[in-house]
Amino acid sequence: MASNASALGKDATPRTAPVPPATPARAGASHAWLRAATADLHAQVDGLFPDGIDSAQTYRRYLLGMHRFTADCEVATGHGPRASSWLAADLAALGVPPMPTRRPRRALLDDARRLGWEYVLAGSSLGARVLLRAVARLGLDDMRGAAFLAHHAAGEDWSRLQPRLAALDEGDARRRASVASGARDAFAHVRACFARSFDALSTDTP
Ligand code: HEM
């Protein structure tokens, strides 16, 4: 797992997304295209957890990386701390100090790029539903150590985002490209945060 993280840290992320179709063929096509435009990066992040969350140490790495990503994402998207405060509580419950940001961030001015970042955080709730079951097997729950996964998996961020993704079908190709570019930046940041968290917690303690 740690070697995966270092390899990821060295990878250059292609910053440009594929050119979107000028007119999506059907409703939801822009979302399908956005998913395809970021699938390689999602697969890399998913690949860091080849056995899911199968130990307390793997879970600590996940929490630490996600805390850094969500805190930066909340600044980038102009939202107040929510996911990051659940993650901070989970880290405190498990006695893991959070990682500081590497560079101060500002809210993104471009609405389309912001939507790309929001897509990545909201979409992670789908994976959270899977991970929550694994974390329950470690004996953790929303009251201790798993507040983020419990709230995020049950939350409505993903369903609330759907009309905004659907509206991309009515927009222009340039806007779609900006959304995808923002989403790729966000996924690259997720990957960088996990590279740091895997390095910080590199020993395989139970
Ligand atoms: C850590 C292990 C992870 C697993 C096992 C996982 C698993 C999944 C699964 C099962 C889905 C639903 C796929 C579908 O129904 O089509 C999904 C979607 C998604 N995940 Fe993950 N995920 C993980 C980590 C992450 C992380 C860390 C992020 C970002 C912070 C993320 C972002 C997304 C996004 C944006 C989608 C929505 C894709 C779409 O339908 O447009 N995932 N993930």
Explained architecture:
The N terminus is likely disordered. This protein has 206 residues and is mainly α. The chain starts with a helix and ends in a 6-residue tail after the last helix. The chain contains eight helices and no strands. The longest helix has 28 residues. It has one domain: Heme Oxygenase, Chain A (Up-down Bundle), CATH 1.20.910.10. The chain is globular. Protoporphyrin IX containing FE binds next to helix 2 and helix 5.
Encode the helix/strand succession as letters: HHHHHHHH
State the total count of DSSP E strands. 0
Unreliable stretches (pLDDT < 50, length at least 5) are 1-12
The CATH homologous superfamily is named: Heme oxygenase-like
Q: What is the CATH architecture term?
A: Up-down Bundle
Structural class: mainly alpha
* Outline: globular
Strand content of the residues, in percent? Answer: under 5%
Percent in helix:
55-70%
Number of domains: 1
What is the number of helical segments per DSSP (H or I, 4+ residues)? 8
What ligand species are in this complex? protoporphyrin IX containing FE
* Radius of gyration, CA atoms, in whole angstroms: 17 Å
CATH top level? Mainly Alpha
Residue-averaged pLDDT: 89
CATH fold description:
Heme Oxygenase, Chain A
Span of the ends, CA to CA: 15 Å
Largest sheet: none
Spell out the key features of this protein.
206 residues; mainly alpha; Heme Oxygenase, Chain A; disordered N terminus; binds protoporphyrin IX containing FE
